Amino acid sequence: MIIDADGHFFETEEIFEKYMEPDLRKYRPRLIADDEGHNFWVADGSTHYRRPTIPGTLNPGTAAPPGGKLAKHRRASVGSQTLSDINERLDDLDKEGIDVQYIYPSFLLHINSWEDGVLGNGVGHAYNVWLAKACAQAPDRLKGVGLVCLRDPDGNDQRDCRIDIA
Question: What contacts 44, CB < 8 A, 6 or more positions away?
């Protein structure tokens, strides 16, 4: 049996639009694009991702769903990369000979650098709910790795320091 213990996917805006609690939804992470179609996440009032200087992985900006010039450098389909089409993801696993994959976020790996623990918990909760539903479509092959916002792991932070980015 071949296990991929470090599979990633690109988060999409749908996760936050659909699964964040209504009172936090207006503060949800959002994608922006530059003139060339490179995508960047804005969360908690800032973005840590800048346009890549060369296409491909391991460059700043690659933690967002690919757009423009970056898209052609990816082997997998968009449906596989974003888990929006589980069958496409499973097809890609089959091509690689992978039996089980543990799935981690990309952009949300940085959730613990956000200042706002309330927002981090809201985003993490939305991600966890969405990921559980996505992996439930192929529970023998896809295993989701959940998020906990370490800024406020118990959900006790009552400060409201969110920045309205709408």
Answer: 27, 114, 115, 116, 119, 120, 162, 163
Residue 65 has pLDDT above 60, yes or no: no
CA-based nearest residue to 27, from 42, 6, 48, 39: 42
Q: How far apart are CA 9 and CA 104, in angstroms?
A: 7
Instruction: Classify 72 in phi/psi space as left (phi over 0), alpha (psi -120 to 50) or beta.
Output: alpha
Structural domain spans, the chain = 3-28+76-144
Which residue matches tokens 């997998």? 76
Q: What is the DSSP letter of 45?
A: T
- Rounded to whole angstroms, the Cα distance separating 97 from 151 reads 38
pLDDT tens digits along 17-56: 999 999 888 888 888 777 766 677 787 665 554 444 544 4
Q: How far apart are CA 81 and CA 90, in angstroms?
A: 11
Half-sphere exposure for 5 (CA within 13 Å, toward CB): 1
